[in-house]
Design brief:
Layout (H helix, E strand, L loop, with lengths): L1 H22 L11 H18 L4 H4 L4 H7 L5 H25 L6 H44 L9 H26 L1
Helix pairs in contact: 1-2, 2-4, 2-5, 4-6, 5-6
Length: 187
């Protein structure tokens, strides 16, 4: 019965994400990709799994950093840290809930050690993700500079032959596309 409830909630969450993306409501958000929200939702899925695991709870802890890895190429350090904090707080909440509701399933000394290890791993993954995000931003700026240097003459600053050829190829392709569209309208 519990598996059916969990599966139903998972399907509802996926359906909600699909609806938001399909309707375009995500385009009104500051982050249209909804990366951070999706990562937090996946953290909740890990929390449910850890709640139902007993002896294997420590092994399932390695699933908490996985969503952060999906956010490394999209999120900044503070966003990764927020998602990581949700995971850490969620694990602590799951352990507290188990200690209150079913104390026989919890060994608080082991879970405290697991929590310390989780904090260390999540902190490390967040810092590395932040570093990768910073390097990615620097590379993007360098790439823009290289593109500009490849298109302009360094002495005069005017566009060079390479830029002229690229512009002509784009215009020829656009004209061919417009001619094909006009041909369909005539037919």
């Amino acid at each position: 019965m519990a598996a059916a409830v969990v599966g139903g909630r998972r399907a509802a969450a996926n359906g909600a994400f699909f609806l938001v993306l399909r309707r375009g409501w995500n385009l009104r958000l500051r982050d249209p990709s909804m990366t951070e929200v999706q990562l937090v939702a996946s953290m909740f899925a890990v929390m449910v799994l850890i709640y139902h695991a007993d002896a294997a709870r420590g092994a399932f802890l390695m699933l908490f950093p996985v969503p952060l890895l999906f956010g490394v190429l999209r999120l900044r350090l503070w966003q990764l840290a927020r998602v990581g904090a949700v995971g850490i707080a969620g694990f602590a909440a799951v352990i507290a809930l188990l200690a209150v509701r079913e104390p026989a399933r919890v060994h608080l000394d082991i879970e405290a050690l697991n929590l310390v290890a989780l904090i260390g791993v999540m902190g490390f993954v967040c810092l590395m993700g932040g570093y990768i995000s910073k390097v990615r931003a620097e590379l993007s700026g360098s790439l823009a500079t290289i593109r500009e240097m490849a298109q302009r003459d360094p002495l005069t600053g005017v566009f060079n032959r390479r830029h002229l050829i690229d512009a002509l190829e784009r215009e020829v392709a656009r004209a061919a596309s417009a001619a094909a569209a006009a041909g369909w309208r005539c037919a």
